[in-house]
């Protein structure tokens, strides 16, 4: 096996040379039983250069650990579509222009919809944990006529809900009382007759609705609300991802980060965010590995939506608009029971290939995606 | 003091679109129309006293009073800030923004100047850091432009942002402020603004001809926006909007829930926190349900004792009209009243059944 040791010198040296050296054919053969039953996709977004991740191993010891046991794509090409559009393209496999502050759903199906529809999954089986507030709730599903809300993911923005301020409201109002069985029955009877029981194509069924209601009440009193400081939104998104894995054991879990964008005006803050996110990523990965069932069935993909400029701006920060390779090329790291181990793939891929790859691994068809499957991924 | 909105006849520059407004103007105010117009114009349902005052009254008088209120302009500002995603920590708190509803109501400033203030705020700059993001957002949000189709303009804008001289949108400048000013002064900004405002209030796209007329009206009279809104609401198009339903925004939901259950708006801080929490969910339904239960069970909602409800049929009917803006069907009424007579059913159970139903979350 052509496993590579991941250190800074080795990484940068190999990144400079373009070519594939990873071993052997990787296509999954028909009839081969896959071990992967779950996928976690971490959009390490907010604009993160390889220079500050795999190029500086001390910043990301946990990502290095994952890379050493998985497959690394050192040249994943991105499109500079703004954070929202570029992250959306990871999920849809289509790089289309979207407004930076667009607060609307996309037209193209997301991988969540492909997986839910093709695998016949419920809403509680597919989740997205976000860090970016209202706009990122749009990642859950598209407006595509064949997909949409009925196949969407449940999205939870940790920083919006699980914060001390919101918990203070819960504390002030007190926890709601529990309904007696007969009262619950009457409640459902009354709800069922309103508008002749028509409720449209909702994301959740009554069952998953109730599960999530209960989960929210529990999470509100957990320690997630206490995370603070630089990168707290991202840290919460990763913490909640870990909790969602434990509670719902979803088939597909997306995590979208964004705090790294502090880099526009604060390079050191940006590095701090990268380090904190790596720490939380390590906790997430360790939680997966510590759970025998998850360890044998869960794959993880980590990829930024794009990088950042090569040079510091006048505020000693890093923007994202110079068109350089630091901006356009990022590193994607994949680990899972069906993947190769310790492999670095140098041929150029695209970040939009992640969507098709995840769908393929889980047995779904990203039929409208423009990306292809990542090469040399499967063992 | 509230300023009277100019009547349609005083705004000839807007063209003939006001003339068609009579059909909406002549219809009396019913429960559905009352709830809808309050939610559309001031972002909340009517308080109990307002309901008592306006039911069966003249719709035109109601529209005029609402458009001339502080609440209308406060709601307008909140809608604009949300459009620019200037929420939570990015919400501007400077005097020029805080005083904006009052300045707009008293006609010290027009909507174009108000948008200019928003885009010049430090919150806008913090929200959109760096030249690439800043210029892109100005072009996208103020002009409705697809930046990817105008790469040259973006590059020039970025250089101007950094202090170099350049020609952006047909004007020469060398600062961030110039970028915003040129965009605000561009005719396309008014076109984009009025198009999205019409869509927000009427739920349909305006015709090109109408849009051009409204742009001219606002160019001729910088304070004409209120008259334009009045014309839209009194036009037959608003009748079509009333026949449509749409999911309610999280902000409006929070305000609606508190007004419906407590006859008062939530504390501004609570409103903001609840909205932000709800915004983080693709399906806010479960959390909306949690919030409704928190509120109902908190003791802050004045619900009658079960024995104090002498006529359950009438009580249920009133709840439907208040919360859903319509009378219950026979089936609904029979089912609810029957459930109410079960000893396990509390008044809170009935109220919760309505406010946690998807229909309550539309308007």
What spatial order of strands do you see in the largest sheet of chain B? 1-2
What string gives the helices and strands of chain B in order?
HHHHHHHHHHHEEHHHHHHHHHHH
The number of domains of chain A is 1
Please identify the top-level CATH class of chain A. Alpha Beta
Mean pLDDT of chain B: 90
The CATH architecture classification of chain A is 3-Layer(aba) Sandwich
The dominant shape of chain A is: globular
Tally the helices of chain A: what do you get? 13
The helix content of chain A is 25-40%
| The CATH superfamily title of chain A | Alkaline Phosphatase, subunit A
Shape of chain B: elongated
Low-pLDDT ranges of chain A: 1-6, 15-29
Name a few traits of the molecule.
heterodimer, A: 379 residues, alpha/beta, Alkaline Phosphatase, subunit A, globular, B: 363 residues, mainly alpha, two-stranded antiparallel sheet, 22 helices, 2 strands, elongated
Notes on the structure:
The complex is a heterodimer of chains A (379) and B (363). With 379 residues, chain A is α/β, with parallel strands linked by helices. Chain A has one domain: Alkaline Phosphatase, subunit A, CATH 3.40.720. Chain A is built from 13 helices and 9 strands. Chain A has helices spanning 8-16, 61-68, 82-92, 111-119, 158-161, 164-173, 181-193, 206-220, 232-248, 267-290, 292-297, 325-328, 353-362, and strands at 38-43, 71-77, 126-130, 154-157, 252-256, 298-303, 329-335, 343-345, 349-350. In chain A, helix 4 (111-119) runs parallel beside helix 13 (353-362) and helix 9 (232-248) packs parallel to helix 10 (267-290). Chain A is globular. With 363 residues, chain B is mainly α. Chain B has 22 helices and 2 strands. The model of chain B is unreliable at 1-22 (pLDDT under 50). The interface between A and B is large, with 76 and 65 residues.
């Amino acid at each position: 096996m052509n496993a590579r040791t991941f250190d800074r010198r080795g990484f940068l040296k190999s990144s400079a040379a373009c070519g594939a050296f990873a071993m052997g054919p990787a296509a999954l053969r028909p009839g081969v039983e896959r071990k992967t039953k779950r996928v976690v996709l971490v959009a390490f977004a907010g604009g993160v250069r390889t220079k500050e991740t795999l190029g500086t191993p001390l910043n990301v010891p946990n990502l290095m650990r994952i890379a050493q046991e998985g497959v690394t794509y050192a040249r994943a090409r991105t499109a500079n579509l703004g954070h929202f559009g570029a992250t959306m393209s990871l999920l849809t496999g289509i790089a289309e222009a979207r407004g930076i502050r667009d607060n609307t759903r996309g037209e193209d199906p997301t991988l969540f919809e492909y997986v839910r529809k093709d695998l016949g999954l419920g809403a509680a089986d597919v989740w997205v944990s976000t860090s970016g507030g209202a706009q990122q709730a749009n990642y859950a599903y598209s407006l595509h006529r064949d997909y949409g809300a009925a196949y969407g993911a449940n999205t939870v923005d940790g920083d919006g809900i699980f914060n001390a301020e919101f918990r203070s409201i819960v504390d002030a109002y007190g926890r709601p009382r529990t309904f007696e069985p007969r009262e619950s029955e009457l409640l459902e009877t009354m709800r069922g007759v309103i508008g002749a029981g028509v409720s449209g194509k909702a994301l959740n069924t009554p069952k998953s609705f109730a599960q999530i209601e209960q989960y929210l009440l529990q999470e509100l009193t957990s320690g997630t609300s206490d995370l603070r400081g630089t990168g707290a939104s991202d840290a919460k998104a990763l913490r909640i991802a870990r909790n969602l894995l434990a509670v719902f054991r979803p088939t597909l879990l997306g995590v979208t980060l964004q705090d790294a964008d502090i880099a526009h005006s604060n390079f050191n803050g940006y590095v701090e965010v990268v380090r904190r996110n790596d720490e939380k990523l390590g906790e997430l990965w360790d939680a997966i590995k510590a759970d025998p069932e998850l360890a044998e069935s869960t794959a993880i993909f980590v990829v930024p939506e794009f990088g950042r400029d090569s040079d510091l701006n006048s505020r000693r920060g890093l923007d994202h608009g110079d068109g350089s390779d630091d901006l356009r090329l990022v590193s994607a790291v994949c680990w899972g029971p069906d993947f190769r181990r310790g492999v670095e793939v140098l041929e150029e891929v695209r970040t939009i290939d992640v969507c098709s790859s995840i769908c393929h691994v889980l047995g779904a068809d990203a039929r409208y995606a423009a990306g292809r499957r990542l090469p040399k991924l499967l063992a | 003091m509230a300023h009277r909105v100019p009547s349609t006849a005083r705004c000839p520059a807007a063209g003939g679109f006001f003339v068609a407004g009579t059909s909406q103007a002549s219809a009396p105010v019913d429960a559905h129309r009352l709830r809808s117009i309050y939610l559309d114009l001031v972002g909340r349902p009517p308080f109990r006293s307002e309901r008592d005052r306006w039911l069966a009254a003249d719709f035109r008088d109601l529209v005029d009073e609402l458009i001339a209120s502080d609440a209308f302009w406060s709601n307008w500002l909140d809608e604009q800030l949300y459009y620019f995603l200037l929420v939570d920590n990015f919400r501007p708190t400077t005097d020029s923004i805080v005083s904006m509803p009052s300045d707009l109501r008293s006609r010290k400033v027009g909507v174009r100047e108000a948008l200019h203030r928003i885009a010049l705020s430090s919150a806008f700059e913090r929200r959109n850091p760096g030249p690439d993001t800043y210029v892109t957002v100005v072009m996208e949000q103020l002009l409705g432009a697809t930046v990817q189709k105008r790469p040259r303009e973006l590059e020039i804008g970025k250089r101007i942002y950094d202090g170099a001289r350049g020609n952006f949108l047909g004007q020469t400048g060398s600062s961030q402020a110039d970028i915003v000013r040129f965009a605000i002064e561009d005719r396309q900004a008014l076109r984009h603004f009025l198009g999205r405002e019409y869509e927000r209030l009427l739920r349909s796209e305006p015709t090109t001809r109408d849009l051009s007329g409204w742009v001219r009206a606002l160019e001729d009279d910088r304070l004409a926006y209120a008259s334009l809104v009045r014309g839209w609401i009194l036009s037959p198009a608003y009748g079509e909007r009333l026949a449509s339903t749409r999911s309610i925004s999280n902000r409006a939901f929070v305000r609606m829930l508190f007004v419906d259950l407590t006859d008062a708006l939530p504390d501004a801080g609570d409103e903001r926190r609840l909205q932000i929490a709800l915004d983080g969910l693709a399906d806010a339904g479960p959390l909306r349900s949690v919030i409704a239960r928190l509120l109902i069970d908190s003791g802050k909602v004045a619900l009658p004792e079960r024995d104090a409800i002498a006529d359950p049929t009438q009580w249920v009917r009133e709840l439907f009209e208040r919360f859903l803006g319509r009378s219950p069907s026979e089936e609904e009424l029979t089912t609810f009243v029957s459930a109410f007579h079960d000893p396990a059913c509390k008044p809170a159970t009935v109220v919760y059944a309505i406010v946690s139903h998807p229909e309550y979350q539309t308007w």
